[in-house]
Write a structure and sequence with these properties.
single chain; alpha/beta; TIM Barrel; eight-stranded parallel β-barrel; five-stranded mixed beta sheet; 11 helices; 31 strands; elongated; disordered N terminus; hydrolase activity, hydrolyzing O-glycosyl compounds; glycosidase; signal
Amino acid sequence: MLRTVRVLVTAVLLLLPALVTVPATATPAELVPSWTPPLSTRGRYLVDANGNRFRLKSGNWHGASGTWNGSGDQNDNANHHAGENSNRMPLGLDRASMADIVAGFAELGLNSIRLPFSNELIHDTTPVPAADVAANPALAGKTPLQVYDVVVQQLTAAGFAVILNNHTNTTRWCCGLDGNERWNASQSAETWESDWLFMVNRYKTNPRVVGADLYNEVRRDLLDDPNWGLGDQHDWFAASQRLGDRILTEANPNLLIVVEGINWTGIPADGLPHDRPTLTPTRHLSHTLVASGKLVYSAHFYDYTGPRHSGATGTGETHDPRYRDLSPEELISELNRQAFFVTGEEGHFTAPLWISEFGIGGREETGEKQRAWFERFVDHLIRTDADFAYWPLVGWHENRTGNGWALLAWDSAGQRIGLYDGDDWRASAWTRLLNAPSKTGQVEPATVWKMLSPDHGDFVQSLRMRNAGDWDSGARKAACPDGLRLVGLSHTGNRGLCRSGGPIWSGAYEVVKDERHVSPDWASGYTKVQCAPNFYLIGYSVRGARVSSALCAGTSQSVSSTGRTVWFDRGDNRGGGGGDFAHGHYKGQCADDEYVAGIAFTTRVGSSGTPDALYCRKLDA
């Protein structure tokens, strides 16, 4: 039986008011609400296997990604962040039993844990000394990865969902010019991908390992910025898109794929361009995974950073406002612009938003601006019903003083102080966050919009068509995820828009490259590729900018054989939602109750064969 945690009954009654009475020796499995894996998405919400809303109420148990500051003896605690040496493992295992730590997480009202790791940890074969796991002697002699295994097992056995987080490449503290700026900053992209496949396969049989947070706080290194869509080795959009698809197709189709926005670009100096893009690029270029119900977007916010402030003091500090300097109205506006729009608006970018890091100092934080920011940020999490993960959960203290950010802290004698000991100003805000009204129960299926972006190569998101092989050799191909249909194209730029609903694909498909099925002549004088009767568009291919083929899926349902022409060669002509899927280009889109049956284009002098018109037909005959 777990040892009694101080004020457990009081904390549980505060955090979990639905429970009338709780034994003082209640176990985590009795405190963590039940849920059924795997998790998936329905519009802006996460749901469990029964379709019930699962709001990530998470915390970060850091340490396995490293706490060393990067200089000096790694065995000297003074050379680790805040003097807290994790010894390459989740912090605190030298001071408290794993059972007590996990019990503390349940006491805080959490249902999920973000568990950072480094790539270096995966390959570290150095045994853990007994002193580093003094409170957990059974771990002595294991490698750091084997300790990580036990942590995952203990968390999931207690009922928690676990999200694996590739926090750093090297086992050291994040985040500066430290060799961890990008997924491929101090290692190859190939190593990053293979390490992820290894980790996913390692925990594949544990259904409560629910997610893969692909990389933490992608940012500029000394010379180069990350980007979102340029197609080069610094393209975070392309790298995360590729790895997300590989995880779902080669390792575990049940995992959530968590993609953080870009944390920093530019040189943080007054007068030079610099910015914190976060998730703003997704408005114009969003991910479309092979499984459309697995994408989660993520962002981090702290009071000491800002929309254009790096968070530094001294070198790297600019005169831009920090988030704590903003008025309540300005803060809400910036948060919505940078991240919260992905849950607040419907479009191709819509997804659950997980604020996977936010936090602040506790007992020793006396700054009025800092405290006000935390209260306002909690208000916005409540207002938007967003998923969240506090940073960090575990810390050190001596005589009730120390770093102070953690919600739970242990001293060298194993004595714990916690959020609900009566002297931590954050307790009321935390209780308010956990107990605030929130969407619960069944979540109805939502309209799914997804964009196709064959900007730099194939973008075939249909598993059926991936298995079909190269259906238009030499062309760049794009196809909607299975279950979605093509509803829009851009005049230039090669982008497409997919939508859920409509005909059910019978399994038959045809690649149409000529006018064999054209009837009637719905775009006189133009070249047309058209689907056969009872077929509808799910994809297309291009050679350069020119239309090469239409990918048509068959259905046994009765659909209309008459239609209308939607021209978009001289301006937008859109009949539905989904957002701006081809920013800066003319777009054509069929209405929500129509399907696309054909594409028209011309190669006459002055034209390059780009889409000019769509042939739209009603879904019902």
